[in-house]
C-alpha cells in the first residue's frame, strides 16, 4: 500500500488555513512544516519542497471542507486519504489542541498505519447526496414553521378537532380562522404563508430527486431497495447517496456498525454491559431506517403502493423483501409484548432492516 512512500504528511484543513505536518519514514520525530493559505496552489508549493508526488502520502480529517482538496491532490498524482475523525486515537491526558498538534498527530498516525480512511464519493454521487440532504433540511424547516403556527392557535384557544393535521380538511379549517386584532391577523397570515412556502419547497425538491434518479448510475440499486416496506423513493435515494457502494461491507454487521445501530458495550472480566446504540457513522441513513422501521408494527402485507414499487424487480429481490416483512413484523410484536419502549423497538427493527438492505443492495450492479 505504501510502496515508494518516503514521507507522511498530515494536513489540518480549515476554511482560512491549512497546517502541514511531516513524518519521514522511520522513527524520526515528525516536524511542523508551517501554515499555508487554503488554496491548492499554495499547498502544492509547500508539498513540492517535501518531495515528489509519488513519495508523499497525505491525510486530512473529514470535515466541513469536504472532499474537493482530496480530489485535486489525487488528480495531480498524490496519494491522499480522508480520515474518519472519530477513529483517531488521542491520549486521554492530552488537553491541548492546536492546528500544529493536529497536523503532527495525523502525520505520525499515518506513518504508524493507525488511521481509518473514509470513502471519497464520486462527484455525481456527492451531488445527489447534497440534494437529499437539502430536502431533509427543508422537511425539518417545514416542521418548525408548522409547530409555530400550531403554537399560536393553541395560545388563543383555537383547537382543531379533526383526525389529521395538514390535510385538505385542516386547510379549510385554517381558512375560516380569524382574529379580532389586526396585528394577530397579520401574524397568522404570515405563519400560513411560511408553511405554504416550506411545503412547496419540499415538493420541488422531491420532484428534483425523482428527475435526477432517471440519469443516476445508482438507479438500479435505488429501485431494488424500494421493494422493502417503508422504503420509498426518497428513503431509498437517501440510503444509497449516504452509504454509496454496499459491496465494501463484507458482512451485514459491518453496515450496522457503520450506521451506528449496534449497542455500545463495556466488558471487563466476567462483567459485560451493553448500553445504547453507538450512534457513530452516518446519521442521515440511520434516521431513514428508524423511520422505515415504524411500518413493521403492522402485519405483513403487500399494499398497492408496495406492489407497484416491486413491479419489474427480480423474483429473488421480492422474496428477500417478503422475508423481511415476515421476520420484522413478527419481531416487532414479540418485542412489544415485552413492553419495551417503542423507540427501542424501532431501533432494534432498524438494525435488522439494515441487514436486508445490505442483502438486496449487494445483488444489484450500478449502471456503467
Walkthrough of the structure:
The chain has 368 residues and is of the alpha/beta class. It has 13 helices and 7 strands. The strands form 2 sheets. The chain has a 5-stranded mixed β-sheet with strand order 3-2-1-4-5. The radius of gyration is 25 Å and the shape is globular.
| Strand-residue proportion | 5-15%
Distance between the termini: 27 Å
Largest β sheet strand count, sense and barrel closure: 5 strands, mixed
* SSE string: EEEHEHEHHHHHHHEEHHHH
- Helix coverage percent: 40-55%
Average pLDDT, rounded to a whole number, is 95
Structural category is alpha/beta
Strand order across the biggest sheet? 3-2-1-4-5
The DSSP helix count reads 13
What is the β-strand count?
Answer: 7
Return Rg in Å: 25 Å
General form: globular
Low-confidence stretches: none
Give a quick precis of the structure:
The chain has 13 helices and seven strands. With 368 residues, it is an alpha/beta fold. β1 and β2 form a beta hairpin.
Please tag this protein with its features.
alpha/beta, 5-stranded mixed beta sheet, 12% strand, two-stranded antiparallel ribbon, 368 residues
SSE map:
Blueprint: E1 7-13, E2 18-24, E3 31-36, H1 40-48, E4 56-61, H2 68-75, E5 79-83, H3 99-112, H4 123-155, H5 168-176, H6 182-213, H7 219-225, H8 233-243, H9 252-258, E6 263-268, E7 271-277, H10 283-293, H11 304-310, H12 315-337, H13 342-361
Helix pairs in contact: 4-6, 4-8, 7-8, 8-10, 9-13, 10-13, 12-13
